[in-house]
Structure formats: C-alpha cells, structure tokens
Amino acid sequence: MGDLGRMLKESWSLVEEHQDKVAGYFYARLFLSNPALRDLFPVHMDVQRSRLLDAVVRAVQTLEDPEKFDEYLRALGRDHRKFHVEPEHYEVVGGALIEAMRQYAGEQWSVEYDQAWADAYATIASKMLSGAEADTNPPYWYAEVVAHERRAKDIAVFTVQPMQPLEFRAGQYLSVECPRIQPRLWRTYSVANAPRRDNTLEFHVRAVGAGWVSSALVRRLEVGDMVRLAAPMGTMNLDRRSTRDTVFIAGGTGLAPIKSLLEELTRYNRTRWVHLFFGARNREDLYDLAELNRLAARYPWLSVVTSCSDDPTFPGEQGDISEVVARYGPWSEHDFFVSGSGPMVKATLKTLAELQVPSIRIKYDSFTDF
Ligand SMILES: Cc1cc2nc3c(=O)[nH]c(=O)nc-3n(C[C@H](O)[C@H](O)[C@H](O)COP(=O)(O)OP(=O)(O)OC[C@H]3O[C@@H](n4cnc5c(N)ncnc54)[C@H](O)[C@@H]3O)c2cc1C
Ligand code: HEM
C-alpha cells in the first residue's frame, strides 16, 4: 500500500466507530450549504441511510490507483446523471465529507490527512466528471410497464417498453427506479432478454427480506406504471469468437442475465454445446422452468439441469447449484457464466477453482456483496 493509501486508512480509522455521527454531520452540512441537494436523495433518509457517504468513503479508500479503475469511475460518473448530479456538486460533497471527518477525529486529525482526502477525492471526481461530460445518452429513459406476472410468492417477471430506444448488450444490467412507489431509490437489475426489435426489456425480480425496492417491484408495480431506467452497464457478455462450449450457472433470479445470453445464443449458435445449471431453494423458486424446458426442447445444443437445496422431494438434483455442477463435467475446456447472490457466486467460483477451471474463462455477476 502506498503512502496515500496508508494515510486514507489511518485517518478513517479515527472516525470509523462514529460512522453514524459522521454521516449525520455530513448530510446536515451538505443540505445546509446547498438545500436544493436534498431533492436528489431518497425521501426516507432517516430509515434508509443514503448510500452516498458509504460509497464515497469506500471508493476513496479502495481506488487507491484511480488509473486502474478509469472505466469504472467514468461509468459511475455517467450513471450519476440519473441522480441529477451537476459538476458543481462534487466540490460540495468533497468539502462536507472532509469536514465531517475532521469534526469527529478530534485532535489527531492533521493537515496531511486533509490533503490526502482532498487529493484522492479530486482525482476520482475528475474521472467521474469526464465520464459524465462525454456521455451522449439521456440521463435516464422513461419506460412503461406493459406486463407484470407473479411467478412465485417473492418473484415477479415484468416487461417494460422504453419511450425511446435504449441500446444494451445481452448480459448487461441497469438501474431501475419507480417514481410512483419508491421515488429516488434506484437499484440494479439485469435485463433478462437479448435486444429485441420492439425494444421491450424483461426483468426478473426477487423481493428480499427488508429490501425497499425489490419488494415494491414484486408486490406493488402494475401494468401502466412508469419506471425510469439508467444506462446499461456490465461486461458479462458472450465472446462471439469463442468456439468453446458454454456452462451457465444461475441461482434464483440470477437467471435473468443468463437468460439474456441464452436468448442471444439462440439467434446464431449452431456449434456450441450449452449447459445450463439453475438452482433455487425450492421448486416454486425455479420460476422460469417452463420456458427453459421449451428452449431445451427446441434447441438440441441446450441442456438444462435444475436443483433445489431445500425441497427434499424435488425430482431434479438436490443441493446447492455450486455443488451440483461438480457432479457433471468434465469442464476443463468450457466458458463459464455465473450469476446469483454473493454467497452463491462465491461458492460456485470456489467449486470451479477446485475443478481447475482457469479464472480467465469465468465471467460472473454477483447481486450482493460476498
Ligand atoms: C449487477 C447486479 C445485478 C442485479 N440483478 C438483479 C436481478 O436481475 N434481479 C434481482 O432480483 N436482483 C438483482 N440484483 C439485486 C438488486 O439490485 C438489489 O440489490 C436487491 O434486489 C435488493 O434491493 P432492495 O431495495 O430490495 O433491498 P435494499 O433496500 O437495498 O436492502 C435492504 C436489506 O436487505 C439486504 N439484502 C439486499 N439484497 C439481499 C439479498 N439478495 N438477500 C438477502 N438480503 C439482501 C441488505 O443487506 C439490506 O440489509 C442485482 C444486483 C447487482 C449488483
Ligand atoms: C467521488 C465522488 C463520488 C463517488 C465515488 C460516488 C459514488 C456513489 C455510489 C457508488 C453510489 C451508489 C450507487 C447506487 O447504489 O446505485 C452513489 C449514490 C449516490 N450518489 Fe454518489 N458518488 C460521488 C459523488 C456524488 C455527488 C457529488 C453527488 C451529488 C450530490 C452524489 C449523489 C449521489 C446520490 C443522490 C446517490 C443515491 C443515494 C441513495 O440512493 O441513497 N454523488 N454514489
């Protein structure tokens, strides 16, 4: 770790145990110095503390070498246009952040710490700003919900029709917000179809525990609602030049981006064998099985293996999908795509490492932190 990185970590450790107070001070400072900024943030900041402070602190500390994260930061800056963030806001946020830390660090805070945070923040902000400036897309697209189907207690599949064309690549995800139900709360969801001529996009959403947005999208979204969509992101794409057979491994609604890639393959694939492993806790959560079986019947190159980890009478495989994959194979010459919750992705990557699959052949999207 370089000097700058050490200094950032050292100084954060001075305030870390007062995180809530730092956050309180940061937002108070931010909204006092620029009251109009309050409108950019979620309504219930008291209940769901805004994600901004955590995100900035994490970014400043982990992106020690911003050059390495150039594309990520440019994309983050482009994405911030959906929040109505303007260039002049960056300075206000940076200033409030440093002031909040200074306030709670006490006497141990130093001018060097001040400078370290200011420098790191400025480098990151300038990359985000240049990404935002170079973007020719609208900051977001409006789209109308044209179909909404509950496929399981906690799972819905819905389709939206964007008002203007929205280009994306199979396997990508984008942020979604529903102004009627949860204004200014954006969450990322994978598009579950390959690009279509009619521009519609399908999403597979699972309501998780105390989650704010997903449960609203599953239980309260209706046909006719308008949602906003931000620019597509993500690099879990198919390499058309690859001639390798392919293994898709999906847990729950992690099926969404896999389905998108599969749909793309149905348009041109003649030569690659494709194995899809789809796992869930119980059979109800294998919410798209009918469609997968239909695809497998139509495309001889596709095989589908299903598994339940918590449904002892399920007639398919039993166990976590990460373990089930290892019962098949050999997999040494395949391309892999993995998608699902953090623990599911982590367990699957571990299995693949044990099977000696080179990491360069694996692409994955994790829905939550590991
Ligand atoms: C690249 C990417 C693509 C994604 N694609 C999809 C998709 O296609 N379909 C889909 O359903 N979701 C997808 N997600 C997850 C989605 O963005 C949300 O994080 C998730 O649905 C929870 O949002 P929420 O507003 O309901 O919960 P939040 O309000 O964000 O979280 C509330 C609480 O629930 C916890 N929590 C969040 N997620 C989970 C979880 N999965 N299991 C258990 N606890 C959780 C949080 O830690 C928090 O304590 C994707 C995430 C990423 C990063
Ligand atoms: C170094 C500069 C910054 C970094 C690294 C950064 C990073 C992030 C990240 C990673 C998120 C979470 C994204 C998500 O959940 O979709 C976020 C959310 C957000 N950011 Fe930034 N950001 C920066 C500057 C700013 C500025 C200047 C503003 C303007 C006020 C801003 C406003 C927001 C808002 C409104 C949210 C959503 C908050 C929420 O949902 O609770 N950000 N930021």
- Specify the CATH architecture of the largest domain: Orthogonal Bundle
Q: Quickly name the level 1 CATH class of the largest domain.
A: Mainly Alpha
The overall strand count is 12
Q: In whole angstroms, how far apart are the ends? A: 23 Å
Task: Give the uncertain stretches in residue-range form.
Answer: none
Structural category: alpha/beta
Instruction: Kindly report the spatial arrangement of strands forming the biggest sheet.
Output: 4-3-6-1-2-5
- Work out the strand percent: 15-25%
Give me the CATH fold name of the largest domain.
Globin-like
Which assembly state applies to the chains in this document?
single chain
Mean pLDDT: 93
Keywords: 2Fe-2S, Heme, Iron, Iron-sulfur, Metal-binding, NAD, NADP, Oxygen transport, Transport
Enzyme class: oxidoreductase
Domain FAD-binding FR-type: 138-239
Family: Belongs to the globin family. In the C-terminal section; belongs to the flavoprotein pyridine nucleotide cytochrome reductase family.
